Each structure stands twice: as C-alpha cells, then as structure tokens.
C-alpha cells in the first residue's frame, strides 16, 4: 500500500513515513492549480470544469456548476454528481474522500473536512482521514462545516454556520454547533 492508499484508507499517516514528501508535493501542486483558477477572475463553467478535471482527475458533468474561488488540498478523492451547485469560497479537504450525490446545493463558504490530527500532542503532526458522503438532493447552508466521517442523508438540509459532527438522517433539517436535529422534512401533496 503506497502513501496515497494508506491516507485514503483512514490509517494514521505521519511525516516520517516513506512517500510523505510525495503526498505533500501532490497537495501543493493541487493547491497551486486551484490558486491559478481562483486568480483568473470570472471563468466560464467550461473553463472551471477544465480546472476541476485537472484537480480531481475526473470529468465533471456539464450540469454541475462550481463558482470560484474554490479551495482544496488533495483533489483526487473528490467525486461530484450531476446537477450540483457549489457556491463561492468553499473548502474541500478530501484526503479521506468526498462523495457528493446528484442535485446537491452547497452554499458559499462551506467546509468539507475529511482529515483530522492525532489527539496525542507528541504525535500531532500525524493525520488520518474519514470519508464524507453527501447523498442526493442535500442542501448545505452558508458557512457550514462538515467534519470527517459524516454521511448526510437524502434530501436533508444543514442550517447556516452549522458544524456537523455526526451522520444526518435522510429528509431532516439540522442546525447549530454541534448540529442537532431540528425537524423532519415533510412533503405535502400539491393537489
């Protein structure tokens, strides 16, 4: 298992491991590509998608919109579904893996953080990741932060400035710090 596979697996990764310098170099290259995109000013979505392809190594569906600036660390562990809308100023630290379903709305300044540090102060520079999964048709409000290992269920809403530390069940609204259940989303028949 190389350093990239180990990092994605959730195992602890420390700066003294073989390949760590390659991991950091890749992160800096990705950050440089994102900074280049962000410095360009207004870009067409085709141009943004070209940058996202360079960052993620994947094609982004034309129905998905991302508005720079956009901040990212590794990039290669991001998967974005069709019909998503990702606003300005979002930060995706994806070393643990970020999966975004279809039709997801992500408001400005949302942070998706999959990496954490060893709680032992003598080993604090070591990190480990946990994936974030955002299911279809989720709406994440402005300034929210989603922490490592969280799954946000289908159709849910995360309130503005919330800090999501635990899974969110489908069709619910959560908010606060830490985010707590507010209510279930009920769809009323329009007839």
Automatic annotation (TrEMBL):
Matches recorded under PROSITE patterns: HEXAPEP_TRANSFERASES
GO MF terms held by the record: O-acyltransferase activity
Alphabetical list of InterPro entries matching this protein: Hexapep (IPR001451), Hexapep_transf_CS (IPR018357), Hexapeptide_acetyltransf (IPR051159), Trimer_LpxA-like_sf (IPR011004)
Gene3D superfamilies for the chain: Hexapeptide repeat proteins
Keyword Acyltransferase: yes
Bilayer-crossing regions: none
Record keywords, A-Z: Acyltransferase, Repeat, Transferase
Protein family per UniProt: Belongs to the transferase hexapeptide repeat family.
Name of the protein described by the UniProt record: Sugar O-acetyltransferase
